[in-house]
Amino acid sequence: MGEEILPEPGQLPLTPEELKRHHQEYAAPFYKAPTADAYADPLDTRTFEPKVPSLKPPSPFLTPTGPTGPHGEPAGQRLNIEPAILNKAAERADDIHTAFAKPAAALKEPANAAGNAMAGWECAYAIGAAHKQWEVQAGVVAGWLAHIAESLRAGARDHTKTDTAIEEAFRGVKRPRSLLEGL
What we know:
48% of the residues lie in helices and 0% in strands. It is built from four helices and no strands. The protein has helices at residues 16-21, 83-105, 108-117, 122-170. α2 (83-105) runs antiparallel to α4 and α3 (108-117) packs antiparallel against α4 (122-170). The model has no long low-confidence stretch (mean pLDDT 77).
């Protein structure tokens, strides 16, 4: 087999779904995906209008009603993020990357052999062009898989850092065990 490395792009393009969600399909060449450790949406517009605080208390009729979890908690409270789960998902994304990239890159020799066998025919050029396009597209897929794995690892690191920082911030705060403590 030849070299089993796909040419991954330096900066990944945004997905068609992301461009469609923002109605920016025409601007695909101008927008690139953010880095793996970024949290900002590259297509979100930010308005810098100050919000006026409300003088009236919120209406009790505006409280969210809807599905609750199995223990009666609101629907948004069911998400439980654990660094171990994020790291395991990152490992799985790496496994998928490896399982995809090696066979995808191994097509170079068969494509060259087919092109050489058809030398002088128009289909020889078509096979070469198709393989080149395949390498580009497969490289983008491999790049996205690597990007997803790194994003999951960054999320796990940030979650751990946030938990540690919160724990450290509250380390100095002591809760009295009884009302008589300290007298």
